[in-house]
Amino acid sequence: MFDCNNEFCCIYCGEYKTHDEQSLEHIWPSGLGGNYAPDFFRTDKVCKKCNNIAGLFVDAEFQKSQPISAELFFSFFHFLDCKNIEAVPLIFMGKSRDAPDNDEVCEFWLGPSNETIYYFRKNDEKSLNHLAKGNPISRRKDKGRVYIDFCTENFYWILLAIKSVNVFFKKAQFRSLCVFDDPKFTRFFDHETDQSSKDREFISLLKFSKTRHSYFEFPLDFGLRFQAKIALGFGYKLFGEKYLNSDYADTFRVCLKEGSFQKRNELFIYGKSLFELSNEFEKILTVPGCFTFHFGRVFDEAYLSVYLPTGKNFQIAISNEANKFSSDIFDRYGNEFAVVLVPGKKMFIGPFSSSKYYIHKQNGPKISELNELETSYRTREQLEYEIKRLSEI
Ligand SMILES: [Zn+2]
What residues sit around ligand 1, an ion, with C-beta below 5 angstroms? Predict the structure, then answer.
């Protein structure tokens, strides 16, 4: 049983650890904006070992996947500042079926105005095949080579793509597939080598072949371990130490440790998968371009429902005996509350009670911060129009 009063007890592994084993865990990963959220999104009751393992195998599996890379991109893209060019994340599009070299892979990425980006890097261990860019530790030595195929002549979009690639593929060799004479752009690109002519040959084969095969991998229960991790973390933040002793919290801990998909599948975890798009009613619950979290307590169940920037949703039951635990947070907000996180704006809004939120969404009295955020949202068409107009001035 847990006795967190006297000793430090890790919420993820349930083991007693010495205080020097304690570490700061972002329940919602900092790479997805967790560092802009308040204390409720963090805990120091996680041991260093679990923090590392969760970072590499649970958070990374979720965050460095194709669908989530797109969600993160849109959380930046829709709030672009047209007068200031700042880097945005890029969208992972999978790996080439054809290998440039036996020990290398070529990844495809998509830039902000649909530029194609080719990224060459060393092959890693198969167990990390599902991660975009592969093993993050190996990438510290193997920075790779990146080529960008621009598809616009607009200054803003070209510079935005260059800046984004420079931030996203830090220190990788960087070259353009288009001819630029303008030193504003050419200063960003590296000199040609024998290797770059080999790379160019490979890219032109890909570009001009009739079919181009790319693929990405997922664990079969993609997202489940991540959902289990955040449910466990938020469960602890909502209900305290008593929650950690519940059977349901224990199921989450088993799920986190369990490597076999089949065995994870046998666990009783209640939720809804990630790939469902929100229906008409649920659109009320989505703030476009943002990560919107809805926490609720209804009779014995406590749940978390997360809406992603493009409207995809997942839900997970945090507890099936919530009536047994006290929670100051739920008491304060009448058993339901929402928070909104926007990594692209380094912004966090909330918490506010769900009733206030619904009224806001139904054109009743507005939550001013949320209103400001929603009016700063731009569709791709609006952005393109604005940027074109600014370039003409
Ligand atoms: Zn631990």
Answer: 10, 12-13, 47, 50
